[in-house]
Amino acid sequence: MRRLEWRLLIGVAVVGLACLAWLFIAALMLWAVLPEQNWSALTEALGNRAGLLIMLWAFSLLPISAALRYLIDLYVRAPARLAEDIRLRTDGEVSQPLNIQGSREMEQLAEPINELLKRHEQLRSEMDERIRQASRQTELEKNRLAALMSELDRSVVVCNLDGRILLYNQRARLQFKRLSQAAQVTGGSELIGLGRSIYTVLDRQLVAHAVENVQRRLARGAASPSAQFVTATASGKLLRIQMSPVRSVDPESGSSTTNLNGFVLLIENITHEMQADAEKDRLLKDLTEGSRSALANTRAAVEILEDPDINEAMRERLLGVIREEIQGLSQRLDELRQSSSDAWRSRWPLEDMLGSDLIEAAVGRIEAESGIEVAREGDDEPIWLRLESYSLLQALTHLAGKLDPVCGIRNLTLRLSTHEGRARLDLVWPISEESGEKPDLSWENEPIISGGEAMAMSLRDVLDRHSGECWIEEECQGEKTRRCFRLLLPLATPQEEQPASTFQHHEDRPEFYDFDLFRPTERTRAQEDSRLRDLGFTVFDTETTGLNPAGGDQIIQIGAVRIVNGKILKRESFDQLVNPQRKIPEAGIPIHGITDEMVRGQPAIEEVLPAFHAFCTDSVLVAHNAAFDMRCLELKQDACGVVFDHPVLDTLLLSAVVHENQNTHNLDDIAERFGLTIIGRHTAIGDALVTAEIFQKLIPLLEDRGIHTLGEALKASRKTWYARVKY
Amino acid sequence: MKKILIADDEPNIVISLEYLMQREGHEVLVARDGEEALEMISEHELDLVLLDAMMPKKSGFEVLQAVRAEHPDLKIIMLTAKGRDTDIAKGQALGADAYVVKPFSTRKLAEQVRQMLD
Prior knowledge:
The complex is a heterodimer. In chain A, the strands form five sheets. In chain A, strands 2-1-5-4-3 form a five-stranded antiparallel β-sheet, with helices on both faces. A five-stranded mixed β-sheet of chain A has the order 7-9-10-14-13. In chain A, strands 17-16-15-18-19 form a five-stranded mixed β-sheet, with helices on both faces. In chain A, 49% of the residues lie in helices and 19% in strands. Chain A has five domains: 3-90, no CATH class; 152-269, 2-Layer Sandwich (Beta-Lactamase); 274-346; 351-490, Histidine kinase-like ATPase, C-terminal domain (Heat Shock Protein 90, 2-Layer Sandwich); 522-724, Ribonuclease H-like superfamily/Ribonuclease H (Nucleotidyltransferase, domain 5). The longest helix of chain A is centred in the N-terminal third of the chain and has 48 residues, at 104-151. Chain A has 21 helices and 19 strands. Helix content of chain B is 45%, strand content 21%. Chain B has five helices and five strands; from the N terminus they run βαβαβαβαβα. In chain B, strands 2-1-3-4-5 form a five-stranded parallel β-sheet, with helices on both faces. In chain B, helix 3 (60-68) links the parallel strand 3 (48-52) and strand 4 (75-80). The longest helix of chain B is centred in the N-terminal third of the chain and has 13 residues, at 11-23. The radius of gyration of chain B is 13 Å and the shape is globular. In chain B, 41% of the residues are buried. Chain A binds chain B through residues 288-290, 292-293, 295-301, 303-304, 307, 310, 314, 317-318, 321, 324-325, and chain B through 10, 12-13, 15-17, 19-20, 23, 54, 79, 81-83, 101-107.
């Protein structure tokens, strides 16, 4: 029972006892002053009605308790609520004016309090502005660095001495995505993320050894020491890593010291390179050892053939041996030539490019150079090509340029599609009566003309460089016939397409770095004793088919964001639909908006939960009404082979801790109390985000109440009334 | 007449070696893999083995290691396409009497066999 209801009971009891005491004293006085016969008459009259008196007394308590409840609400709870509302505003969590409900006197307080709050707010914004100005310069420099990093074409990861990642670039993100064993679900964000440990990917001992090496050389006075090593990841990829030190800065002189406070890793995936080398070794070995055997067999056969006494049958057998061995040798040489030409091609700097980008560039260039009108067809699907775009664009422009004068073509369509593991890039034009002569395949050997000058390469060279081919094809579309130049080009493994904003807007970039992580942490400290501000959190929410997980309701969506160093990392989020392998009840669809159609083809919980578990590594879980979400996870963990034994905080309980006098603690009401706007309510990621923002606001309020560590927060949560709800 | 075992999985060399040894007047047995070679060595009273280093089931080196202790007097010539110094050293360490790298001269091989059997 809540504290105020106890107070009400005590109040009613006190008033009841006071009434009884008054009755007793009144009776005592009557007995003292009344003559004896009157007293006897009175007791006689009342004697049989004692029960009635007690009932009267008891009934009189009811209006008293109602009045007391009203008074407590008006004069006790309302001021307490007011105190909480004022604290919210003085802490800077909320800025809208107070709306006081309570007694008239309290309502009169609203105006002066709001005035005071307004002045407080003004003062604070002035202070904030001064701080902002002071930090703007630093922020600018940080952004410049981050911008530089994000444009680098090598993977860069900067870590503090604990191995926690405090900066990484776009290339590193893509590379780690490829290393991820659940890349489809997590996008690699379980491996790379601010505050995550680099040791999830790299061997701790190896890194420690490299750090020691660098440290030793720094101490000896080396100007720019670095260490190189090669390591294999859990997913079997080979990485070549170059480590350079981040030196600490002497606060007084501002110069670098020989002490390390972090390191920069340049990471290169050399799996393919090593595979290619291994393949070359194998071929070389085959060639030398295989040729030795073949030569031995041939030589022995020839030497025996020289014997004049040899019979005809033996001679035939030996000649057969010679023929077979020579054929084997030729085959081996062909293989070697083929593989070395593959290796030659792989040395060309081919890059991954989105097909639509290539088409766009080609359209622009052809229209500008030859004046032909170019349309696009079928490049809506993201098709990734592996190519050297410069020479290919020149070849395409050259082809289009030849089509106009030779075949009289003024309209062209560029079409991109995929077929049997290759990309087809077609230059299509309609055949009409005015069409001139047919294009000729011998064009492919002519030098490419660019800007009126012949280049040293032909279309054939460009195609060879891409292991590609080209031919001319005719296609019928109803009554119309079209002709096309078809170019076959290699496809690249699909990449995560980055929104352009990642590179253009500064406000999007800061999530790739957090220099505050350079501060040393006490790793040995038990998590329960860690300050809430120092911990990493995964704030999550699940959407389910219904509200009874034990009764068979299933998870259909998991959304999560991480909080590191007090910042919500919106870019490192987890947002995944789950196929519940059962029908989603109609009743829930208006709430979560997830239909059977949407979850069709999505991974099952057995695939999603391990990926989510990896995403939660090294963090404290946070959810609103966590008991429900945790129950959903726990019911599935055995089947998925993971255990969610992370510490768990519940924003519902924490809100009840800091605002014990508020009537409700549901997500919408808390959000409104904190002045937060909810986007995407009732989607897992939307709810996870608003829960994270609420949690962020709760931390300073908890600290005001002396709750600083995880252990203290857990203890306080357990004490609240709401903590008893079970699922 | 001496009894010689040719242990090699490549029929194209076996043809020549068999002819060569028979011309020298020896009785020739042929094994196609390491295990067969081991069996024949234990079953027959052999004078010399021409042992290929790379064979299926058991390599020539494994065969050499297995038989050397029991047949200290058996002459064994290793034939191999592996010409690395380390391989030659390994063959000698395991107790091969000679190590012949392919391609070899049949005349010289016949001469070497003759010397060993005398």
